[in-house]
Design brief:
Strand order of the largest sheet: 1-2-3-4-5
Structural class: alpha/beta
Shape: globular
Distance between the termini: 30 Å
Largest sheet: 5 strands, mixed
Strand content: 25-35%
Number of helices: 4
Length: 112
Amino acid sequence: MEISIKTIEDIKIAVLTGDIDANTASSVTKEVLPLAEANSKIILDMTGVPYMSSAGLRMLLSLYRQTTAKEGKLLLVGLTEEIIDTMTVTGFLDFFATSETLEQGIEALASK
């Protein structure tokens, strides 16, 4: 799992590459959870994530809760069809704003 974090304007972008599973979810949480600050705008670019297990879903839910508790915004970018299907079946997709591309995600959060 590779994680790189950058900031564009006031939006923090975490680019994830690799599977998010029981072996990697804790490291993703450790890197990404500190981004959830008061009124933060966070994009998780998951274009490079081919697979996400239930541990990945738990990580996303934890990040969602932390971000919304602090009046922040969280947007997921580049979800694969398989991850969208999993998140739809489990009801997780209802919690998250999504975008197909990073540019669309930045535009969506910049306007809020």
